[in-house]
Amino acid sequence: MKKLGVRKSLLFAFCSLIILYTVLPFALNLMIAELLLFMIFLIGGFVFPIFISTLQALTTTARGTVSAMANAAMYGGTALGGMIGGLLLNHFRGFFGVSFFIVVMYMFSLFIYIKGGIFKTEKRYHRLQEIQKVERK
Fold it and tell me: 48 or 18: whose pLDDT is higher?
């Protein structure tokens, strides 16, 4: 992470997860599927602290609130994703529906991060944060 930096680590994680979830339903056997899932969970485990620290860096006064809201959103997403995943498993053959849904959600999240300016150059990103702080006052 230190070598790539926050922006490149997040972008790498998003792109890797999108590719791995796209390939997952086409796994030829259980061993390949398990290997892909291992890689997905490994990348997810590495990038999770980056997501949380990025969210907490948005404010200096409400870090606890940001953390609590992030946790609530994650648990809500887990419940909603489980419900939607069950329906998709029931209506589509194999893991195709679930995988497609996950890829769409990752692309949506990537779009939000791009629009939020997280992937701009370091100087432009810090300038954007300064402008947002002034606008909040």
Answer: 18
The residue count of the chain comes to 137
| Residue 80 in tokens | 């909603």
CA–CA distance, 78 with 102 (Å, rounded to integer):
12
Output the pLDDT for position 71.
Answer: 87
pTM for the whole thing? 0.78
Q: What is the rounded distance in angstroms from the CA atom of residue 82 to the CA atom of residue 130? A: 38
DSSP symbol at 92: S
Closest by alpha carbon to 113, among 43, 50, 71?
Answer: 50
Radius of gyration of the chain (CA): 17
| Gap between the Cα atoms of 135 and 131, Å rounded | 6
Output the 3-class SS for 5-62: CHHHHHHHHHHHHHHHHHHHHHCCCHHHHHHHHHHHHHHHHHHHHHHHHHHHCCCCCC
